[in-house]
Design goal:
The protein is mainly alpha-helical and 125 residues long. It is built from 7 helices and 2 strands; from the N terminus they run H-E-H-H-E-H-H-H-H. The protein is globular.
Length: 125
């Protein structure tokens, strides 16, 4: 599989829009970036260059932390930020789902607000 490493900086910039206490799915991030898939977002999160990128805030579409090395550290970081989890292990989307990037990011990336709302309507939660 070819990985689109060129998209990693754009992914990191967008992930930095997710504030403490909120989570987004890999697919939510991918839906806002042309040519990027949820899998590519996952690769980017696994390769974050430093802690300035809040990688822990990106989870799978079921609201769970994907099983892999480091998953316990991710959950600890999220809990420290106030993220609550259901008995199923899923984050509570109704309380913690990211609502999307700010207008400045949308404008800079050429996404009209109405188009963003159509994208957001497909997000989990």
């Amino acid at each position: 599989m070819t990985r689109n490493y060129a998209s990693f900086p754009a992914i990191y910039e967008l992930v930095q829009q997710v504030p403490e206490g909120q989570v987004a799915s890999y697919g939510m991030i991918a839906s806002l970036l042309p040519g990027v898939t949820a899998r590519i977002v996952g690769f980017a999160m696994a390769a974050t260059p430093d802690d300035s990128i809040p990688w822990q805030r990106i989870i799978n579409s079921a609201g769970k932390i994907s099983e892999r090395p480091g998953m316990n550290r991710q959950r600890e970081r999220l809990e420290a930020e106030g993220i609550s989890f259901k008995k199923s292990g899923a984050a509570d989307w109704s309380k913690h789902r990211w609502q999307g990037p700010g207008e400045d990011w949308l404008s800079k990336n050429g996404i009209e607000f109405m188009d963003f709302l159509a994208i957001q309507a497909l997000w989990p939660g």
